[in-house]
Write a structure and sequence with these properties.
The structure is a single chain. The protein is mainly alpha-helical. It has a single domain, classed as Endonuclease III, domain 1 (Orthogonal Bundle), CATH 1.10.340. Helix content is 71%, strand content 0%. Helix 1 (2-16) runs antiparallel to helix 4 (69-84). The longest helix has 16 residues, at 48-63. It starts with a helix and ends with a helix. 24% of the residues are buried.
């Protein structure tokens, strides 16, 4: 389950690219640390709201700025749906 979660979270976070790092030529694993923390939350969360909070908190911690909850929730819903159906 963990490997599947890593693949799904990576896909959605990289597609979102909240810091626009890929446009500047960042490597595909640029968000690897953030993704690892989010995957842990996904596997422990009871719903997509908890995942959204984890995404918001994780990116806020790593990049030192606030992220819109609705943006994070949109990503979380997609991850949750793909992982848990």
């Amino acid at each position: 389950m963990r490997n599947i979660a890593v693949r799904i979270v990576t896909k959605h976070i990289n597609n979102w690219d909240p810091e626009y790092l890929f446009a500047d030529g960042a490597p595909d694993d640029e968000y690897e640390s953030e993704i690892a923390k989010i995957v842990e939350a996904v596997l422990k969360s009871k719903d997509e709201i908890e995942v959204a909070e984890a995404i918001q908190d994780t990116f806020g911690y790593f990049f030192g700025r606030d992220y819109d909850f609705e943006d994070c929730y949109s990503i979380a819903k997609n991850v949750w749906k793909e992982l848990y159906g």
